[in-house]
Structure formats: C-alpha cells, structure tokens
Design goal:
This protein has 190 residues and is of the alpha+beta class. It has 2 domains: 30 residues; 157 residues, Jelly Rolls. Helix content is 18%, strand content 36%. The chain has 2 helices and 10 strands. The strands form 3 sheets. The protein has a 4-stranded antiparallel beta sheet, with no helix packed on it. Strands 2-9-6-7 form a 4-stranded antiparallel beta sheet, with no helix packed on it. A two-stranded antiparallel ribbon has the order 4-5. The longest helix is centred in the N-terminal third of the chain and has 27 residues.
C-alpha cells in the first residue's frame, strides 16, 4: 500500500475543505481568529465608546460591526433592534448608523469607516482595515465606535451590536509560509 499517496490525498482534501469553509466564513462574518465585544450604544446617553491598544506599528487593525442583521421578538412584536437607516440614494450609499475610528497621537484620526458606498457596500455594517505605520517603541491608539446622528423619526432606545477586532502583523513577503502565518496571527487572541 502506498502510504505517501494516501497521505498526500488526505492533505489535499483537508486543505480544500479548510479553504472552502474559510471563504464561506469570510463572506458572511469576516476573517477567522477575531475577537468580539458586545456593545450597547444609547442615543443621548452613550453615543460613542472607546478602547485603547498599543502597537509599535507594521500591523493592521481590522474592525467590523455586526448589527444590521439582528432581530428581537418581544411579546407579539418582532422588531429589528438595530438597523441601517432608511434614505439616501444608491449612488450616494445612503446614511449609516455606526462609525468606527482609529485615533493616534495628538488626537489625530488615522482611519475611519461607516457604511461603505457605492452599492452593494452601502447595505452593510462598517468594516475597516487600518494600517499602523512603524513607530519607535509602543504607541497608544484609541478605537472609537459611535452612533451617527439618527435621522429616524422614532429612534430606538438602544443599539446593541458586536464589534469584531483583530490586530495582525504584516507578513514578510516570500519566505516560509508558516513564518508569515505566525506573524499575522491576531495579537488580541494572545
């Protein structure tokens, strides 16, 4: 029996299954290995929240919000507890409800994201990839998530969502793939 061929066949099938499942997850929920935070913003009370993190640069902060798709059923009513606001036209992208910002030294906004435009992006929650430049030593950054001014006639009492984050080192070009994978693991998971 040729064990090398069987071993190779099993590896090829395994890699194919992993790649297929990774693509499916990426289409619906972002990259693997991210960490999630449950957050509630309240209009007029808590309209933005901030977290700090440190980086010496050469990293990418990925942040995305999952909010639009959730529904709640209370008593006899089913309502969307968070939703993108109505309005806007497809070419402009329409208004969004949430925004994400990365703030660096001296309160400078380095990156920001809200609902992507043009279509089909405008129907999605914000997603951001923020490259952090190399620095001398560790710098402190702030990740802020907030509500834009609601335009709904009857704003909701609160807006719950999941903030998904990962901070990954930029992999070296070429060389050993395992070194690249190791460099690009989510630092927030360590």
């Amino acid at each position: 029996m040729n064990y090398k061929k069987i071993y190779l066949f099993v590896i090829v099938i395994g890699v194919t299954l992993l790649a297929t499942s990774s693509v499916s997850r990426a289409q619906f929920g972002g990259e693997d290995g991210r960490e999630s935070i449950a957050v509630v913003l309240i209009p007029g009370v808590l309209e933005a929240i901030e977290w700090t993190f440190k980086s010496s640069g050469r990293e990418i902060l990925f942040a995305s919000i999952d909010a639009e798709i959730y529904r709640a059923k209370t008593d006899e009513h089913e309502t969307t507890i968070t939703a993108a606001e109505e309005g806007g036209c497809e070419d402009e992208g329409g208004p969004g409800l949430f925004y994400i910002e990365v703030i660096g030294q001296d309160s400078v906004v380095l990156c920001s994201a809200d609902r992507p435009a043009p279509p089909p992006g405008w129907m999605r929650d914000p997603r951001m990839a923020c490259g952090l430049p190399p620095t001398k030593g560790q710098n402190t950054y702030t990740l802020r998530v907030g509500l834009k001014a609601p335009t709904e006639e009857e704003p909701q009492e609160y807006y719950p969502f999941a903030l998904n984050v990962s901070l990954r080192g930029i992999a070296p070009a070429g060389g050993n793939i395992w070194s690249a994978i190791s460099r690009s693991r989510n630092r927030f998971s360590e």
